Amino acid sequence: MSQLDRAELAQQGALRADGLRAAGVELVALTFVDNSGIARVKAVPVDRLWSAAAWGVGASNSFDFFLATDDIVDGTHSRGPVGDLRLHPDLDALVPLAAQPGWAWAPAWRYDQEGEPHPQDARALAAAATARLAALGYNARTAFEIEWVVTAADAPDDPRSATAGPAYGYARLSSQARYLRTLVSTLAAQGVAVEQIHPEYAAGQFEVSVAAGDPVRAADVAVLMRETIRTVSEHHGLRASFTPKFAPDGVGNGGHVHLSLWDGDRNLCAGGDRRFGLTGTAEAFGAGILSGLPALLAIGAPSVVSYLRLEPHQWAGVFRVWGLENREAPLRLVQGPAGQRDRAANFEVKCFDLTANPYLVVAALIFAGLAGVESRANLPEPVDVDPGTLPSAERLPESLADAVTAFEADSALTSAFGAELATTLVDVRRGEIDRLGALPPEELCAVMRYLH
Q1: DSSP character at residue 257
Q2: What is the separation, in whole angstroms, between the first and last Cα of the chain?
Q3: Strand, helix or coil for residue 110
């Protein structure tokens, strides 16, 4: 029997459509993120929102096997051109798009034709991970940092074409002040709480940080932010790139994740009796993530180009260490200022990038953290220097192939993902290695520059 209350969904869809029409919305974009990190979309007229909510919109099963380059790979669970899934918008996440008048957006759940959840629905996996946390009495607050490079639309290969001046310099902000102001106001109009925005290290590079929230919502916001940045950039004669490595000799774009563990309204990353104020539970959660980082890279750094960014002394976090406010550690404990740590303290995972599916990322981090909690794991000694200067520091996987091997060996993570999704992720990652792994760095960067 279907898990969907189709009559209720139709009614709610019709009610939401009435509100959207009053706001001038004519079309609704429904997105899901595939296993290669690309947001795929179907759109419906607002008058058909009730039907999409109740009965879904058709989408091929083959999207699970798409590469970012749009090549479709084979895999154990592939049905080729056969079969159909249904995209059902999450009406609670529906938002009119301030940068695209007449449009609204909603992330979609994927079901089969019988109304059963699709086992490769990344958003459903993120919701399941969050529910597992809740069943143990915990909740997580999560946020993604978005880094991107802008170029002039008529010079898309030159990041110096859009900004000039020193890294983090006011001159860079001034050169695109109107663009950044529009971007922040657009995000705010769409319900995204921006906490800061600034020029980054690389030429043409910016970063925006937002308030933490529920993990599924955080992944939704990551999708919405990226598409909003892309659209606002185009309106200002710019082109946005989220690639981990714009050029082989440049600094890459990260997709850092901030994650704190809570017991009700108590932040377990502060006020405890462990190092730096961690509670025992939060330390075990962090230890689970640190232990699982080799396998987690197959989720959070899932592209061949990701490993051009993961180099020592680049603040990307390439050694399996952790530390207090250590920006060279892949697991950084952020305390926040004295007096605010009970709200601000969190773990930051720095080795991930924006080729990742954000729903898979939050699910994987929660499952890894829970594995640490269940085993009562302890963090090793923290590192307070650049780990690249320590001869004993363990290097994380240096290639996608090595990360995939680590993922396959992590039985806790693959079990949590389920056999079908875990197997397909391996098939897709190896398909990307076959397609892109032999390309020289310059060509690889060019191919991947504007796909995500």
Answers
A1: E
A2: 37
A3: strand
Cα 449 to Cα 244: distance, rounded to the nearest angstrom: 8
- The answer to whether 23 and 96 are in contact (CB under 8 A) is yes
Q: What are phi and psi of 139, to 5 degrees?
A: -140, 160
Tens of pLDDT, residues 136-186:
999 999 999 999 999 999 999 998 899 999 999 999 999 999 999 999 999
Closest CA to 340 of 436, 270, 261: 270
Q: Give the C-alpha separation, 329 to 346, whole Å.
A: 14
Task: Please tell me the distance from the alpha carbon of residue 402 to that of residue 396, in angstroms, as a whole number.
Answer: 9
Distance CA 278, CA 266 (A): 12
User: What span, in angstroms and rounded, lies between the C-alpha atoms of 430 and 173?
Assistant: 40
Return d(Cα 242, Cα 376) in angstroms, integer: 37
| 392-to-73, 231, 310, 388 alpha-carbon distances in Å | 39, 46, 18, 9
Cα separation, 337 vs 341, in Å, equals: 6
For β-strands 266-267 and 257-263, DSSP reports them as antiparallel
How many Cα atoms occupy the beta-carbon half-sphere of 86 within 13 Å? 18
The C-alpha torsion from 380 through 385 and 389 to 393, rounded to 10°, is 10
Query: Is the alpha carbon torsion for 327, 332, 338, 343 positive or negative?
Result: positive
Q: What single-letter amino acid sits at 220?
A: D
CA distance 437 to 415: 28
User: Which is nearest to 165 in space by CA: 157, 151, 175, 156?
Assistant: 175
A 10 A CB-CB count for 419 gives 12
pTM of the entire structure? 0.97
- Whether 2 has a pLDDT exceeding 80, the answer reads no
- Burial (CB < 10 A; 0-12, 13-18, 19+), residue 431, is buried
> What is the SS3 assignment for 437?
coil
